[in-house]
User: Which sequence fits this backbone?
């Protein structure tokens, strides 16, 4: 259940940032799509693909994915790097290495979050995807 708390706290941190919880006027939210399958790699890590599309706006603010398995006993949260924002879909591949334990084949949970901020006004745009995935 530890992962539920971490996901909730991450969400609340973004929502409660003054002036930073909604899309900037006239700006389309960022589109994020976690691919439904992940690949088990050496040492119990998983390779996950995330598709991201965003319009040119501001600068990178936050970009990460949380992957959990076994009710949160296996947990990883790598960054997604700095997405290219040019109104086109781009796929980012990350390796999620758990803090404790090891991922295994079967069902897992993934939550990806991407946001950008206008450094002058503090306005943000954001997008996220939350889904069950299959580790193969």
Assistant:
């Amino acid at each position: 259940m530890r992962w539920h708390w971490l996901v909730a706290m991450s969400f609340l941190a973004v929502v409660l940032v003054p002036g930073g919880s909604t899309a900037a006027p006239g700006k389309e939210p960022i589109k994020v799509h976690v691919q439904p399958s992940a690949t088990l790699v050496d040492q119990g890590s998983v390779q996950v693909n995330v598709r991201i599309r965003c319009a040119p706006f501001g600068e990178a603010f936050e970009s990460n994915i949380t992957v959990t398995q076994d009710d949160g006993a296996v947990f990883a949260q790598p960054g997604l790097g700095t997405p290219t924002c040019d109104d086109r879909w781009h796929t980012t591949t990350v390796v999620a290495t758990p803090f404790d334990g090891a991922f295994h084949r079967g069902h897992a949970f993934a939550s990806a979050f991407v946001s950008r901020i206008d450094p002058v006004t503090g306005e943000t745009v954001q997008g996220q995807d939350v889904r069950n995935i299959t580790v193969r």
Summary: The two ends are 23 Å apart (CA to CA). Residues 13 and 21 are 9 Å apart (CA to CA). Strands lie at 31-41, 45-53, 59-69, 74-76, 90-96, 106-117, 124-135. The helical segments are 2-15.
